[in-house]
Specification:
Elements lengths: L1 H26 L14 E4 L3 E8 L4 E11 L7 E6 L3 H12 L3 E3 L5 E3 L3 E4 L5 E9 H8 L8 E9 L4 E2 L5 E9 L1 E5 L3 E5 L6 E11 L4 E7 L2 H12 L3 E3 L5 E2 L3 E4 L5 E9 H7 L4 E10 L4 E3 L3 E7 L3 E5 L7 E5 L21 E2 L16 E10 L1 E8 L12 E7 L10 H8 L9 H14 L5 E6 L10 E6 L2 H4 L5 E9 L12 E2 L1 E10 L2 E2 L1
Parallel strand pairs: 1-10, 2-11, 5-9, 12-21, 13-22, 16-20
Antiparallel strand pairs: 1-3, 3-8, 4-7, 4-9, 6-8, 9-11, 12-14, 14-19, 15-18, 15-20, 17-19, 20-22, 23-33, 24-26, 25-32, 26-31, 27-30, 27-33, 28-29, 28-31, 33-34
Length: about 525
């Protein structure tokens, strides 16, 4: 009996197994009956957490795409998704207070969401939300003091009324960062070479801009105090700011959005700048200011140094080819030849008796004309003075220097007449013949087109003026680049009432020629 019951039980179990296998075969490939309803269609954001949105003000309306995904078993369903931007209170409750963040939600005026309602159709695996940011406005918001240390964000959250949304993938925090457009001078300093003998000169200064945004700028001129503080004193340079009558330019300009290098014109008054050039290094000190929100200035200051030509000088130390052509009489023991003999002595050349003293013959200021042996451009002149205690001779009050571009000077003297004029035998009592030679020389000299180079002034009849005294040819004269064979020296004696002696003396003459202009050899 027991054995029979065992066989019946075994048969029932076997039949149950067959039934079970048949049941599995019935649902294979069709799990709808056993899959939870939530698995049929699942909505989520592709990117969640914090997503950095990096913009530039040049982007203007910056578009950020946010993909919304549709997954699960039934991708052929139509799903409607709602998009919202949670409020500051929601961010405070869910992030700032819980996580210690410092998020600030953008004002609604700084963005727009173009897709608040999405419809993901059959066979589609997703659609995108598009957020358009006002980049310049966000940049301006970033600059406000109350937003210092805060992160400007836009939270985007999705929901659906009929399907499942993954709660761990339903929110993305768009953290906004906007870089400005940048404008600035292309250099900190530029040199303008002002032309000779033109009343005005125009040039352009370059402003460089990055970012495709139209930018308004203003050009300000620094005060002399600012120039001294920021540039002159630190550099040890005597910068002198141009006055308003030395230049002209428009104070503002607009740089187009597609312009990377903008040229702004400045016109200089060369005559006025040249008149003030001896006061120091003439500069137009500019400061650049942006007038456009979202455009910042990188290199805001520039000095425009106004220069004239640069002249390199070389001393004419070899005087072997020099010669005295003519001049007024000299004392018998103080010959003209002594001023070009290369010997720095106290003997030198002594003029005839000066006006106001007994023996003066009405010969005027002493002068001499020297042939320099070659055509040169003179850049500096000098004389050696040697006052000898006021006895018989003294230093002049001033010395004038001239040149001429005439090729040949010839007063028409015979060798004997030249010798008699330049090397008289009588110290004071000149004959009528001798005085007529001096008159002939003076009359001829008046026909020469002499060009004034410079005047050596500030001399005295003291040992303080002993030695070599030089005067540079000023820029206004150098700019004409006169070249000549001859140098004329005119001595201006002290009036007899002030002079310690009745004649003036020069021991030696010096000439520095211009050897190069702006680095180019002559």
């Amino acid at each position: 009996m027991k054995n029979h019951l065992y066989k019946i039980g075994t048969y029932i179990l076997a039949l149950a197994g067959i039934v079970s296998l048949d049941a599995c075969n019935d649902i294979d490939g069709n799990y709808d009956e056993i899959v939870p309803e939530s698995y049929y269609t699942i909505i989520s954001l592709k990117d969640t957490g914090v997503l950095d949105v990096i913009m530039s003000v040049a982007d203007k309306d910056y578009v950020q795409e946010i993909p919304v995904l549709k997954g699960g078993l039934h991708t052929d369903e139509v799903v409607e998704v709602m998009v919202e931007a949670p409020s500051q209170a929601w961010i405070d409750a869910n992030y700032n207070e819980r996580q210690g963040t410092n998020y600030k939600v953008l004002p609604a005026s700084m963005y727009r969401i173009t897709d608040y309602h999405l419809k993901i159709g059959p066979g589609e695996t997703g659609r995108s939300v598009h957020v358009v940011f006002d980049a310049p406005a966000i940049y301006a918001e970033m600059q406000k003091p109350e937003n210092s240390g805060k992160s400007l964000i836009l939270p985007v959250k999705i929901a659906t009324a009929t399907k499942t949304v993954r709660t761990d993938k339903d929110v993305v925090i768009l953290q906004c960062s906007v870089s400005p457009a940048v404008v600035g001078f292309d250099r900190e300093k530029m040199t303008v070479k002002l032309p000779d003998h033109e009343p005005q000169f125009s040039t352009g200064i370059i402003v460089q801009k990055s970012g495709e945004i139209a930018t308004d700028v203003r050009f300000e001129v620094m005060s002399q105090d600012d120039l001294d503080r920021d540039f002159g004193i630190p550099a040890g340079v005597n910068y002198v700011a141009l006055t308003s009558d030395m230049y002209s330019m428009e104070p503002t300009a607009t740089i187009d959005e597609n312009t990377e290098f903008f040229t702004h014109n400045v016109t200089f008054n060369t005559d006025r700048i040249r008149q003030a050039a001896d006061n120091g290094v003439m500069v137009l000190p500019l400061r650049l200011v942006s007038l456009t929100q979202g455009a910042v200035v990188s290199r805001s200051e520039m000095l425009i140094e106004c220069n004239f030509h640069e002249y390199t000088l070389a001393t004419m130390s070899d005087k072997s080819s020099w010669s005295v052509v003519y001049g007024t009489p000299s004392m018998p023991y103080g010959r003209f030849a002594n001023i070009i003999d290369g010997m720095e002595d106290t003997f030198g050349w002594y003029s005839h008796t000066c006006e106001g003293w007994p023996g003066y013959q009405g010969l005027g200021n002493p002068y001499v004309v020297i042939n320099l042996g070659s055509r040169v451009m003179i850049g500096q002149c000098g004389v050696q003075l040697a006052w000898s205690d006021g006895y018989y001779d003294t230093n002049p009050m001033a010395v004038e220097f001239y040149t001429t571009e005439q090729d040949n000077l010839d007063p028409g003297f015979t060798p004997a007449e030249s010798k008699q004029l330049l090397y008289p035998n009588d110290e004071r009592n000149f004959s009528d013949e001798f005085l007529s030679l001096a008159e002939r020389a003076r009359n001829y000299d008046n026909t020469v087109n002499w060009i004034h180079l410079a005047t050596l002034t500030g001399l005295s009849q003291t040992q303080a003026c002993n030695g070599v005294m030089k005067v540079a040819v000023p820029e206004s004269v150098l700019s004409y680049q006169h070249r000549g064979h001859y140098l004329k020296i005119v001595v201006i004696p002290f009036p007899a009432s002030q002079s310690l002696a009745d004649r003036a003396k020069i021991s030696e003459v010096y000439v520095d020629r211009v050897s190069a202009i702006d680095g180019e050899s002559l």
